[in-house]
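Re: weekly structure request thread

Next one in the queue (349 aa):
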Amino acid sequence: MLSPSRGPERLIRIGQWLIALLFAYFLIQVGSSLIADLPLLTKAPRQEQFVDRPRLEPLLSELKPLTQARDSLQGRLEGVRRKEEEARESYATDKASFDNWRSARSATEQSSQNPEVIARVRQLDTQLDQQRRLSAERQGLERQLGDLQSRIDTPQRQVDQLQAEAQTRWQRARQRAEGRAFVIRLLFVGPLLALAIWQFRRFRGSDQWPFVWGFLLFGLFAFFFELVPYLPSFGAYIRYGVGALLTFLGGRALIRWLNAYLLRKQAEQAAPQQERQGQIRYESALQALGRNQCPSCERSLSRSDAQLPNFCMHCGLQIQRDCPRCNHHHLSFFPYCPACGLAAPTAEI
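Done, posted below.
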């Protein structure tokens, strides 16, 4: 592939791109810190700020002793239920043991009048009485707990309603705060990106182009990475709306660029041969030919025996010619004949 660049020139170009990237990197670091601190100008709302305290405080004061009493009753009820379960299991065990013992007694002995039998029956009756007392106590605690819960339900519903209203107001305030934070970021990033684009269009061809490119990279990073991710999402229509707008503007710009490109190529192909060659830069021509493309219409060239054609078969541009002094066949874009050194009529170094 033909290379139009000189060795030191390539090194300088690489150094200039490194300067552009370093310049963009340090600007991005400074800008990221600054943009991150911009929302601190507005304090984020807290949910407790939107609670109706004059209405909430009396309800909480009313609920506090009731909930404490409910917790105490629940603790007592759990204890009674455990005791009742233990008494039921103990009775079942003793009853099964008594039945087995009585069935093993001698048939001639009157078990109904046996003192040991009577003692065991009385013990079982005592256990049944204990179960009945525990059951009655449990039922009484359950009734008290139900009555207490009914007293708690009304103020609790009012507390839940107040908290739900506070949650709604807090969500709205947070959305407004996010909107303000986004506007603050936009007021900083928007002019920054506009300035970067204006400088790029105006000064990208100057000798200060590394700084222009670096500033443009900084502006693009600030917009796409520091601003767009913080778009407030109100039902997601802002985020997708901005995406649709950017896509539309990008598509329109691409269509305009394509139409302008086609018109420019048509005008170039209609110009005389000498004028067409004079409009093509030497470096651009060598790069296009190195890619096996026509420097004018940028279509692919067909080679025969690994040689470029004399003219482009698409637009008629002269690709190769003979030197008028030595008749050496060479590219028409060479500023000097590679055989005899004769300068071309429109040589550009």
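The mean pLDDT is 80. The CA atoms of residues 32 and 332 lie 51 Å apart.
Next request, please.
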